[in-house]
């Protein structure tokens, strides 16, 4: 990958939120952001001059699967979780339609890196560290671990409290292709 400005997002990228639950009937869920875009400026010989920005449409978060637990996740369960995600108790998508990330520091190489930056969720901004690795041909993947309550999000509960998600979630991303953008300002990455 050469120095330059690149865009990324669906359909050549995936952004997943992985949740878990402790206790009896342990269940894990996977939520996917279907509308998001990002830009990165790559300066290979001086990573500190590189940068990453990302915007996720909160209304695009979709429950993809649930595993474990006493019963399988039904379509009705998925609809209920989506309604709760968008409502006032969790993400309040009407008031906060986007989640944004802006890097403040990048260390490492194109093959193995850490991105420190500011994540804004529900109008609250806090620092996070994103881990990643690239193959040199545009494929990039990685993860970050977040604590929901840091951003004022109460972990999801349902079924009279019998289903309660852990406060800690794992964000995973994979981009199979970075698209070169014209100029440093470029255009935004893809959205689906």
From TrEMBL:
**UniProt domain Lipid/polyisoprenoid-binding YceI-like: residue ranges:** 14-178
* Origin: domain of life: Bacteria
Identify the Pfam families for this entry: YceI
Q: Which family does it belong to?
A: Belongs to the UPF0312 family.
Protein name listed in UniProt: YceI family protein
Organism of origin: Streptomyces chiangmaiensis
């Amino acid at each position: 990958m050469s120095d330059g400005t690149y865009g990324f997002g669906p359909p050549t990228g995936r952004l997943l939120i992985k949740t878990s639950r402790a206790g009896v009937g342990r269940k894990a869920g996977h939520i996917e952001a279907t509308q998001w875009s990002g830009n990165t400026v790559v300066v290979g010989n001086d990573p500190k001059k590189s940068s990453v920005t990302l915007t996720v449409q909160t209304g695009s978060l979709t429950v993809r699967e649930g595993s474990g637990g006493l019963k399988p996740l039904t379509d009705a369960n998925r609809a209920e979780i989506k309604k709760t995600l968008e409502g006032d108790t969790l993400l309040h998508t009407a008031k906060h339609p986007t989640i944004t990330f802006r890097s403040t520091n990048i260390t490492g190489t194109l093959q193995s890196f850490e991105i420190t930056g500011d994540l804004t969720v529900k109008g609250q901004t806090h620092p996070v560290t994103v881990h990643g690795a690239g193959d040199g041909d545009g494929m990039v993947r990685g993860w970050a671990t977040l604590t929901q309550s840091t951003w004022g999000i109460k972990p999801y509960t349902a079924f009279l409290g019998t289903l309660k998600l852990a406060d800690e979630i794992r964000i995973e991303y994979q981009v199979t292709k970075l698209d070169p953008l014209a100029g440093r300002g470029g255009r935004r990455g893809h959205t689906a």
